Amino acid sequence: MEIKILGSHGSIFKNMKSTCIQLSEKTLIDAGNIIEGLGKDCIKIDNILLTHAHLDHIIDIAFLIDFTFKERTKPLNIYGHKETLDALKNHIMNWDIWPEFSSIRLLKTSDYAINYIDIKPGRSFNLEDMKIYPYESNHSVKALSYIIYRGDRAILFTGDTYKNSKTWEIVNKDSRIKAVITDVSFPSYMDDIALASKHNTPETLKEDMENLKREDIKIYAMHIKPFCYNEVTQEIEEKLPHITVLKDGDYINV
Ligand SMILES: [Zn+2]
Ligand SMILES: [Zn+2]
Q1: How far apart are CA 181 and CA 156, in angstroms?
Q2: Which ligand sits nearest to residue 53's alpha carbon?
Q3: How much distance in Å is there from the Cα of 111 to the middle of ligand 2?
């Protein structure tokens, strides 16, 4: 299976895009870089799986639905935890910040433009040719990690998280998982802000990975904050040399 990293950072800066992973022509995890990442192909997107409601993960939902509204023949399906969807509905897509597209009908059909789909941690579901298994990450708001299964292979994306032994318990038991993509946001000396905001540093990821018992798995880091990008990549190179830092536009094949 192949996925594309449209955005790999924990915020936005020139030539640095925020979290967005393309699973297929129609389906994304998170919405940090849809418009620039896909250009006109963004019209093909039908499904977005949200990890959580922080701005760097949802921002392009607003611009995607705006740009594609006139041509859409199907609603845009937004999957997420109930708390994530409530945050989006109550604080962003509420007419105050952006239109409430879930109450606006498309021009080409009678469907509403956005369809919210509430998903539960621990309950898998099918989407296109994939099976998706969501579980709770360890973040400052309710947030999901996702395992994406295609055939007999899988990729686990933790989304934003601090240490979470559950990830490694799952990986140890399930040999179908061939790659883990996880959060390293700050350098280790910023451990106070990392703990308060529930993100990993190279040190906390290293500690957490002591729970990993497999050697046949590829580990990738992303979500580095642009203001400390060089510090974090250098620290990962020194302390976690077997981990690959993802860049915008990278592909992962397993
Ligand atoms: Zn984030
Ligand atoms: Zn977050």
Answers
A1: 6
A2: 2
A3: 31
